[in-house]
Amino acid sequence: MGDRYNIHSQLEHLQSKYIGTGHADTTKWEWLTNQHRDSFASYLGHFDMINNFAIVENETKARVRFNLMEKMMQPCGAPPEKPED
């Protein structure tokens, strides 16, 4: 029983420390938005990935970088309406 409590306390610590790990009340939309933003940030941080995207899309590197930053604003569309309690 002590191990179970320890695992839950470690998970709660990680969830409070890192935003992207979620928590018990994280919705599917929030989770997917975090995943998409993390992916786009990784792409922006790796110069070779931007070069690859530019070649595949036949766009300039600046345009690809701009498009990725634009997608980071709302990668999964507008948030869904929350039902009232």
TrEMBL record:
Main subcellular location: nucleus
Q: Which residues form the signal peptide?
A: none
Any idea where this protein resides? Nucleus
Q: Which GO terms describe its biological process?
A: mRNA splicing, via spliceosome
**Does Cell cycle appear among the keywords?**
no
Q: Which UniProt keywords apply?
A: mRNA processing, mRNA splicing, Nucleus, Spliceosome
Is Cell membrane among the key words of this record?
no
Q: Report the GO terms under cellular component.
A: precatalytic spliceosome; U2 snRNP
What top-level branch of life does the organism fall under? Answer: Eukaryota
- Xref: InterPro entries: SF3b5/RDS3-10 (IPR009846), Splicing_factor_3B_subunit_5 (IPR017089)
Q: Which family does it belong to?
A: Belongs to the SF3B5 family.
Return the protein name: Splicing factor 3B subunit 5
The major lineage groups are: Eukaryota, Metazoa, Spiralia, Lophotrochozoa, Annelida
